[in-house]
Structures are given as structure tokens and as C-alpha cells.
Design goal:
By secondary structure, this protein is α/β, with parallel strands linked by helices. It has a domain of 197 residues: 2-enoyl-CoA Hydratase, Chain A, domain 1 (Alpha-Beta Complex). The protein is built from ten helices and eleven strands. Strands 1, 2, 3, 5, 6, 7, 8, 9 and 10 form a nine-stranded mixed sheet that branches. It has a two-stranded antiparallel sheet with strand order 4-11.
Amino acid sequence: MANRKLGCLSIFLFVALCASVFINLILAATAFRRLSGNSREEEPTPSFRETIVQRGSRGSSDKIAVIAMRGLISSSLTGSVGDSMVDDMRLALQQARDDDHVRAVVLEIDSPGGEVTASDVIYNWVVKTRAKKPVVVYMDSLAASGGYYVACGGKYLMANETTITGSIGVIIQTLNYEQLFNKIGLTSVVFKSGKFKDMLSGTRPVTPEEREYIQSFVMKTYEKFLGIVAKERNLPADMLRNTVADGRILSGRDALDHKLIDDVGQIEDAFAKAKQLGNAPGATIVKYGPPFAFSRLFRALGSTDSKIELTLPKQLIPQLESGRAYFLPSFYAP
């Protein structure tokens, strides 16, 4: 009897071993084909999850895609789908542009602005999307500086009457702590290849030549911002330069009076305008959000401690990096 049980166990183990070898051979062959490039497969583009905000007419497959851009515009902020929030905006706009059922896009902006290059990248993606289907921009509480820069890429701009917008300008800042170093007896020793290499160093005063050079750089970037506003809003650049394009903030109502936007209203008015421009009166309003992923859930659970802390999001109190150019209102420059 014992020999019989031992024989059955041996057969079972032999079958299991054969199955394991077979599976490993298949996995090894698949990995080899991928490495050799014989059956190269492109990774699918990350897709944003759609949440229904407002149901449309029964039987209609038309959609209005709502894409939100919130917080500081920065390539340093981690994205939900892409590597950064800039990648997230690009991927979301691309998804809306490539979806034949999406007839128009509502870009909801609640941002104080941010990095010059990041703002310009998102603006260009908005323009690319606008070339294929209408983009209605709705400015929430705040759409200033870089937020307004991005908004200019839309076909139709709307804001709440109380929205803070405008702040057309550029800022670069640094700290000078030379006097502090002198008090505590610290001295900075610098070896540099050229006279501008340690420009904006906080250990010494800015020279007149450096100040002129940096100001020239700021003004060239400002002229690009001004040119985009003038072109997109069909307004004379000189008129803007001598009036509202001096860094001042404006309410939504003031922005309308100065023709920086097309209308004031609520988010529902932006939905209605998108349906009109997209010729889709029965469209369903869907909002893009990050796809569900267990890894994101585990990261969130794993990052929690036994203590509860109340902290302000970094987007609300941005720390400007020395030497970087920003599209930000002055009250966001600490």
C-alpha cells in the first residue's frame, strides 16, 4: 500500500515538473523574442478614466471631454499617468483629440501659472487639439500668468466674474545672503569658466552687467508671452503693453472688458458652449481622471503613518527655484 502511494506521488511530481518546465520554456521563448525584436510590440498609450458628469441624449455616442489643469505648472510635479503633470496634460489632450466620439473639449483651469517652458509646452498641445476640435477654456478661481498663457490656446475663453486672471509677465528671483555669511563667518569660494557662470549667486551682489543681461532675458520671454496674447486675442501688442500686460491681475469681469476672454459664466455655460461649437447638443459630458491602479492605492496606503498631519499642498505655496523663469503673479513669489 505504501509503495502504491509512493508511486502516485512520484507520478504527480513528474507531471508537475514537466508542466513547470513547459511553462518556463514558453516564458523564456517569449522573452527572447522580445529581446531580439522579432515581435516588438508598442506599449499602449496610458488612458484616462472617464467619469460621467452629465448624461446626454439616449442613443447619442457624442462626448464632451473635460480636462482639468490644477495647481502649479511644473515639469517637476509627478503626474498621475505620465512622468509629470505636463505629460498628463499632453496625454489627456491627445486622448481627447484621437477619440472620434469626443466632439469638443472643456479645459478647466485653476492655476497660478508656473514654469515658462512647461506652460509653453501645454499651450502648444492645446493649440494642436484646437486644430482638430473646439477647445473651450473655463477659468476657475485662478488662471493667472502661466495659467492664462495656457488658456490662450483655446478657441473660446470663459471665466467666472470673480476669477483671478491676467498677470501677463515673467519673473526670475534669487536671494542674497552675503550679509548673513559675513555675520557667521562663512565665505564662498568659486572657480568659474566665465564671468556669468555664477550669475544670481546669493553670496555676492548682482553686477550691473548681470542685471542688464537677466533683465534682457526676462523681457525677451515677456515679449513672447505678449505676442501670444496679441495673436490669440487679436489685440494690438502695444496697446496690451501699455495697459493690462504689466503684470497686474484682473477679475473675470475686468478681463472680459479688456477682451482677454470671450464671456463670463459658470462651468455649465462652458459645457453648453462646447456642445454648440462641437455641434453635439446631445453629447454626454465626461471628465478625465487617472485610471485605477492597485500600485497607486498601495503607495497611498503605504505612505500613511500612525499620525495625522495637516499641511498645505506644495502647489499652493510654490517655492521658486533660483534662476528659473516663471509665469507667476507677484503674490506667489515668496
